[in-house]
Amino acid sequence: MAETAKQFLPLDGQVAVVTGASRGIGAAVARRLATMGAKIVATARNPESLSQLAQSIRENGGQCEAVPCDVTNLAQVEAVGRAVEKKYGRLDILVNNAGIGNFQGKLHELPPDDWDRVLNTNLRGPYYFIRAFAPLMIRGKSGHIINISSLAGKNPVPNGAAYAASKWGLNGLSASVAEELRGQSIRVSVICPGSTATEFGDHSAKNESKMLTAEDIAQVVAMIVTQAPQSFVSEISIRPTQKP
After folding, report:
1. What is the dihedral of CA 49, 51, 54, 58, to 10 degrees?
2. Using a CB cutoff of 8 Å and minimum separation of 24, what contacts does 197-202 make?
3. 184-200 pLDDT per residue, tens
4. What is the CATH number of the domain that holds 108?
5. Nearest CA to 40 among 24, 25, 9, 19?
6. Helix or strand (DSSP H, E) at 43
7. How far apart are CA 44 and CA 23, in angstroms?
8. Active-site entry in 88, 127, 128, 163
9. Is 137 domain-assigned?
10. Is 3 contained in some domain?
């Protein structure tokens, strides 16, 4: 009997780190990359949800390990970097997805601690992870860094100025780091989703059936990481077909 043809997995042998992977966009991205053959290192602050994700991926034939990590804690991020380097000796894909928002009032009414919490998670966190993993990618002379931003990084967001500031900043960071690393064949991309039906934010005033899904964003990540080597997508804005 003829041997069954082996399934083609475009990311076979590659290693991907996904932050904020315990739910929403991060979980969808982790699952999608796992189906493409990548070994997933999933990080988030919630160990229980993270373990459930990793178990689900493994039960469906993928490879995933859960590594609890607070992206605002440099020591924890550096520990993830050392663990990945020791176990795999490489990193092919870094998806900076972890993020929080605050949409409770005007900027002059926002407590400084809330400002710090949003900026530290949404902007300092990607900096920490790039700092931890770019040297490993440079040594390998390849890699994808994908930062999950928002259309709030392009448009005014009344009562969400801290969130908007963090995402405008992330867009600028992404473009600058892309120029710094492109000579090392490391491609840096930023994705700016519109309204997405996840646990993030209050969607009570919107029709969730018209919103983007987390899987829509995961599809964009899959497209980016399978680009031909001579090109990279620097920025993608994705919106629902119909306004929700």
Report:
1. -130
2. 198/23, 198/24, 198/25, 199/23, 199/24, 200/24, 200/25, 200/99, 200/101, 201/101, 201/103, 202/103
3. 999 999 999 998 877 76
4. 3.40.50.720
5. 19
6. strand 39-44
7. 9
8. 163
9. yes
10. no
Which residue has 């160990």 as its token pair?
A: 47
Give the residue numbers spanning the domain of 177: 15-238
Q: Indicate the residue type of 126.
A: P
Specify whether 163 is catalytic: yes
Please write the tens of the pLDDT for every residue from 135-192: 999 999 999 999 999 999 999 999 999 999 999 999 999 999 999 999 999 999 999 9
* CB environment 91-105: b (16+ within 10 A), e (fewer): bbbbbbbbbbbbeee
Take residue 85 and report the two structure tokens written for it.
């380097």
In the chain, the largest separation of any two C-alpha atoms, in whole Å, equals 73
> H or E stretch including 162?
helix 161-181
Rounded CA-CA distance 67/55 in Å is 13
Phi, psi for residue 187 in degrees, rounded to 5: -105, 125
